[in-house]
């Protein structure tokens, strides 16, 4: 009897969820914050330029198409979170688990390869973008201080290495995704990207 009482309850009551894991404490506010940080990234800074290149017809149509793809993907991921029933079924704790249950083990390996390849490409892109941005800031400060005829050439290799080391160090922080302050900082940065883009657009129109 004591052994049974020591086991996690699987009815969704108490400190554990119906799958025996620690009860989830997320709220609508935290979900909205995570969605904002996931959707609005530094790429929004070039969104206005990209839309302008497509024109007043192609730009909005492309945005609507991408929004539709994002919506359908979100619905599919939500439906695949539990299987076989989307409400009471067993939870899939990763994208690869959901693919394995619905499409088989071979598809799981293919999806995993594509997923990690995309993550690798994203990390490389962010490292290059960060290094380029730091160089631009350094050159701008140099020109303001020394004049526009000054030799203000800076390389990007050092900044790429520094940012890469920071990423590696932060990847070893346990439960990084559970830090509330990190989500707040990310949400603030997302809104900052948006306001920078809006401000530059208004300035260009004026």
From TrEMBL:
Subcellular location: Cell membrane; Endomembrane system
Keywords on record: Amino-acid transport, Auxin signaling pathway, Cell membrane, Membrane, Symport, Transmembrane, Transmembrane helix, Transport
Primary location group: membrane
Residues of the Amino acid transporter transmembrane domain: 24-196
Record region (Disordered): 1-21
Biased segments, Polar residues type: 1-12
Job description of the protein: Carrier protein involved in proton-driven auxin influx. Mediates the formation of auxin gradient from developing leaves (site of auxin biosynthesis) to tips by contributing to the loading of auxin in vascular tissues and facilitating acropetal (base to tip) auxin transport within inner tissues of the root apex, and basipetal (tip to base) auxin transport within outer tissues of the root apex. May be involved in lateral roots and nodules formation.
Family of the protein in this entry: Belongs to the amino acid/polyamine transporter 2 family. Amino acid/auxin permease (AAAP) (TC 2.A.18.1) subfamily.
Protein name per Swiss-Prot or TrEMBL: Amino acid transporter transmembrane domain-containing protein
